[in-house]
Amino acid sequence: MTYRPAETTFSPPWSARIPSFLYLGIAVGVVGVVILGHLSPSDSALHHWVVDRDMRRLISSRTFATLIALSALAAALRSSMRGVRIFPDGVEYRDVLSLGWPRVRRYRWAQIDCVVLDQPQSLALDLWDGTRAFLPDVADRRGLAAALEKVATARAIPVRGGVGLDEIPESDEFVEER
């Protein structure tokens, strides 16, 4: 019988999400200005700037507002997809590299030689091939460290820098595979 933990997700910190939410707020403002421009009286400056000048533009104000809104929504969704997920078969982390390129790494429990919790910046996993995988920052670092330590203890994976389990996990927390 092998210990299989329940699936747990740890989201990114708010500091990583703030830029995308600011962008989403600006996009909502642009959409609001375009809507107000179309609804304003035809002799107003806003109507003239948004609607009347559309003939001379490369793309219309509606198309521009739609593109900005979709881009901001995609950025907000992409930033919220970061984080670490502990699932029954291993650990998965998602991060965004430069230029918005996503990175998804999945490690099975059998690949993990040691869980390293004493790093000052981030948590890490020592893998069977001698490499070290650093997990991205999450909002609840203590919770992630506790969950990794609990799984590592149950699966006899060495832990470096753990705080120790204060209590024995309840039997209903363990889902066993036969």
Q: What would you note in describing this structure?
A:
By secondary structure, this protein is of the alpha+beta class. 37% of the residues lie in helices and 24% in strands. Strands 2-3-4-5 form a 4-stranded antiparallel beta sheet. Strands 8-7-6-9 form a 4-stranded mixed beta sheet. It has a two-stranded antiparallel ribbon with strand order 1-10. It is rod-shaped, with a radius of gyration of 24 Å. The chain starts with a strand and ends with a strand. 17% of the residues are buried.
Low-confidence stretches: none
Q: What's the main sheet like?
A: 4 strands, antiparallel
- Percentage of helical residues? 25-40%
Assembly state (oligomeric): single chain
Topology:
Blueprint: E1 2-4, E2 8-10, H1 14-39, H2 45-50, H3 61-80, E3 83-87, E4 90-96, E5 102-108, E6 112-116, E7 124-127, E8 132-134, H4 141-154, E9 159-160, E10 175-177
Parallel strand pairs: 6-9
Antiparallel strand pairs: 1-10, 2-3, 3-4, 4-5, 6-7, 7-8
Helix pairs in contact: 1-3
